[in-house]
Amino acid sequence: MIRNIVQVGDPVLRKICSPVEKFDEALGALLDDMKETLRREEGAGLAAPQVGVPIRAVVVDVEEGFFEFVNPKFVWQKGEQTGPEGCLSVKGKAGDVRRPNKVKIIFQDRKGDRYSLVARDFFARAICHELDHLDGILYTDKARNVRDVED
Ligand code: CO
Questions:
Q1: Within 10 Å of residue 132's Cβ, how many Cβ atoms?
Q2: What is the pLDDT of residue 67?
Q3: Contact 106, 120 (CB under 8 A)
Q4: pLDDT digits over 9-26, tens only?
Q5: Model's pTM, two decimal places?
Q6: Gap from CA of 21 to ligand 1 centroid (Å)
Q7: Is 25 a catalytic residue?
Q8: Could you tell me the distance, in angstroms and rounded to a whole number, from the CA of residue 13 to the centre of ligand 1?
Q9: CB 61 within 8 A of CB 41
Q10: ∠ at Cα 9 (57, 12), nearest 5°?
Q11: 9 C-alpha to center of ligand 1: Å?
Q12: 11-148: what fold?
């Protein structure tokens, strides 16, 4: 099911999201809906608070594949890259953000099983952007020269 993506100004985007504790059918349904919604919008990532659910779950869709990260945490962040970002909750804008170039995260899947993953370049950028959402941070808080773009 396609979910409505909340836009900047909605307080849910500024919440510190709660850890996921129940790995139940509702979580699976939410993640399925987030995937469908992300695919429809042709975005690189979507965090649960962006569909109005302030829990620590994100989906990322990049060259390396489609990923679901539940309760993700950084293990380390290395290097630096600066590049353009947009956000499905900040329509019609883009801005340049400095991010680490390589990150390692630990996370759980929808069943609660634990994994770790190393990502670099755009994949690392997407992870950083989505994990910021879980702490109520938008890329526009960090970006230089936020500008209008065509959707
Ligand atoms: Co975003």
A1: 19
A2: 98
A3: no
A4: 999 999 999 999 999 999
A5: 0.97
A6: 23
A7: no
A8: 9
A9: no
A10: 30
A11: 13
A12: Peptide Deformylase (3.90.45)
